[in-house]
């Protein structure tokens, strides 16, 4: 069986209507495409997110372990793998839908590679315009492709931000390194100041050296060394202590001490 869709067209020869004939089987296939998201359950099973133990832990903390939560966990573990699979899957689906809707009326869409090219151009929001859909259903599929690409772009930005965001231990490592580097630089500046001061004192106590010629130059060098030392002292890096990490370290140390006390008491026979 076939279904006819009447679309309006504006051409250089005038305005008119053309009829696009679709096979019912093709439309049923397009409507069944959303069921391919059942493949997503395979990824959930692959990463062990459908296990009973996860649901038990969720009930313990009053968290509903549903598909949204599983998606968050999966995106947190492997964001780029999820985005890569989602991009390839959606491009294939939209390219197939565009080929179904545009194939009866446009010879350019007889080949799947042209449909995939239109889906990719629409997905990247470039839109070259060399090949474009003309039917209403084809334009609707392209519009959905563009809207889905914006959602995918937002997820990509979040994934990149989370990847390059430094966690608390990494920030502590950087702060410790900057503090040590600042201390080494302070030591070098202090040594220079002490050397300049010693040379000024030696020149002042030596009667064989003319005071006007040598003392002025060394005083200027001493003043510059003191200025550099104070500038470096003012550039001390600020270290922000994380109270959560400090509490965690304190609790771990307390547990270690408690375990050692229990071991000592066990050896002495008190427990």
The H/E string reads EEHHHHHHHHHH
By DSSP (H or I, 4+ residues per run), the number of helices equals 10
Which percent bin holds the helix content?
A: 55-70%
Q: Calculate the mean pLDDT score and round it.
A: 78
**How do the strands line up in the largest sheet?**
1-2
Description:
This protein is mostly helical and 271 residues long. Helix content is 70%, strand content 7%. It contains ten helices and two strands, in the order E-E-H-H-H-H-H-H-H-H-H-H. It has a two-stranded antiparallel ribbon. A hairpin with a 2-residue loop joins strand 1 (2-11) and strand 2. Helix 4 packs across helix 5 (79-102). It is flat. The model is unreliable at 1-16 (pLDDT under 50).
Give the tags.
271 residues; 10 helices; mainly alpha; 7% strand; disordered N terminus; two-stranded antiparallel sheet; 70% helix
List the helices and strands and how they pair.
Blueprint lengths: L1 E10 L2 E10 H9 L7 H7 L5 H9 L6 H11 L1 H24 L9 H12 L12 H29 L3 H38 L5 H24 L8 H26 L3
Antiparallel strand pairs: 1-2
How do you describe this structure in short?
The protein has 271 residues and is mainly alpha-helical. The chain is built from ten helices and two strands.
């Amino acid at each position: 069986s076939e279904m006819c869709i009447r679309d309006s067209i504006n051409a250089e020869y005038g305005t008119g209507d053309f009829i696009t004939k679709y096979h019912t089987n093709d439309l049923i296939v397009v409507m069944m495409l959303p069921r391919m998201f059942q493949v997503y359950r395979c990824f959930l099973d692959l990463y062990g997110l459908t296990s009973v133990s996860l649901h038990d832990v969720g009930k313990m903390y009053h968290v509903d372990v549903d598909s949204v939560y599983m998606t968050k966990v999966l995106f947190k573990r492997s964001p780029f793998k999820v985005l890569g699979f989602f991009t390839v899957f959606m491009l294939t689906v939209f390219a197939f839908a565009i080929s179904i809707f545009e194939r009866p009326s446009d010879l350019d869409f007889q080949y799947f590679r042209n449909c995939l090219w239109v889906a990719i151009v629409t997905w990247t929001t470039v839109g070259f315009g060399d090949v474009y859909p003309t039917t209403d259903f084809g334009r609707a599929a392209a519009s959905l492709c563009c809207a889905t690409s914006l959602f995918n772009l937002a997820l990509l930005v979040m994934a990149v931000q989370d990847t390059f965001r430094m966690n608390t231990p990494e920030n502590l490592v950087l702060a410790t390194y900057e503090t040590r580097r600042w201390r080494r630089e302070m030591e070098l500046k202090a040594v220079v100041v002490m050397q300049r001061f010693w040379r000024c004192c030696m020149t002042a106590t030596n009667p064989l050296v003319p005071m006007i010629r040598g003392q002025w130059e060394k005083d200027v060098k001493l003043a510059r060394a003191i200025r550099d030392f104070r500038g470096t002292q003012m550039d001390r890096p600020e270290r922000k202590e994380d109270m959560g990490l400090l509490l965690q370290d304190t609790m771990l140390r307390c547990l270690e001490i408690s375990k050692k006390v229990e071991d000592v008491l066990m050896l002495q026979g008190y427990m």
